Amino acid sequence: MSSSFEKYQKRRLISSYFSVVISVSLVLFLLGLLGLLVLNTKKVADHFKEKIALTIYLKDNAKEVEIKQLEKTLALAAYTKSTVFISKDEAAEAHSKDIGENFMDFLGYNPLQNSIDVYLKADFVDPAKIEEISTSITRKDFVDEVIYDKPLISLLNDNIKKISFWVLLISGIFTFIAVLLINSSIRLSVYSKRFIIKTMQMVGATKKFIRRPFIWKSVRLGMIGALLALFGVGIVLYYLNKTFPELALLEDKFLLMILFLGVFGIGVLITWISTFFATQRFLNLRTDELYY
């Protein structure tokens, strides 16, 4: 009978530890993914910004030397990510494919112009900065006009600001929820041992002596949960980097190390604090209050 009861208690104890580890790992896994999103919000935003092109249309009388010089100047400019020269013949061929027929057969000539698509660095994709760049390039005699999608750039910048704000807000809310969930799991684990805590106190054990094993046990469980969470985050990160290599998610190893250490530290810190206050609560209760 005694052996059966001991096995039951042991199973209960293991189940309690397992619940704490799973709760901590799931919460920290989601927190890690959110941290990953926060760290890469700017990188993702920059990726979309750098897809916007500034198109420079050249006059038909533009000399090849002038065009080459302009290309070289643009390539060396601080604002340039990359440039692509598109001849009027290439533009006509692409346009013919888009409309499904050769429009030059109808017109009898090619009305399109040579052009240079300039892809800007993300920091320069701003209405005021692009306008300044555009004005500077337009001053050249052989440049006909410079066009870009003004409404798209304004909309993109506004949406990026809104998304960044909401990501930070949601991160703060989710961190708070994560603390509450881990705290609840720890409190339930300590609650199941409230009578043991009170018994130890009644035989003369000090509060510090009673708290120590509970805290160390919870911290160890928190470490295990954090390692499981980081393993999951690592798998997701590897998959995302393989799927979207252009984002270079593994490039900034320092930030990733801070994220992983932060998630691990949060797991340890929350379990330590939660266990401390949970055990303190039961230490301060009277014996008859343990039943409520």
Secondary-structure-derived class: alpha+beta
User: Which regions contain 5 or more consecutive residues with pLDDT less than 50?
Assistant: none
Number of strands: 4
Number of helices: 9
Strand order of the largest sheet: 2-3-1-4
Strand content: 5-15%
Helix content: over 70%
Distance between the termini: 28 Å
Major beta sheet, specifics? 4 strands, antiparallel
Shape: rod-shaped
Query: Any idea what the radius of gyration is?
Result: 32 Å
Secondary-structure element pattern, one letter each? HEHEHHEHEHHHH
The overall pLDDT average reads 79
Describe the model:
- Helix content is about 70%, strand content about 10%.
- It is an alpha+beta fold and about 290 residues long.
- Strands 2-3-1-4 form a 4-stranded antiparallel beta sheet.
- The mean pLDDT is about 80.
Gist of the model:
This protein is an alpha+beta fold and 292 residues long. Helices cover 72% and strands 8% of the residues.
Strand and helix map with partners:
Layout: H1 2-49, E1 53-58, H2 64-76, E2 80-86, H3 88-99, H4 103-107, E3 115-120, H5 127-138, E4 143-147, H6 150-191, H7 194-202, H8 207-243, H9 253-284
Antiparallel strand pairs: 1-3, 1-4, 2-3
Fill in the keyword field for this structure:
single chain, 292 residues, alpha+beta, 9 helices, 4 strands, 72% helix
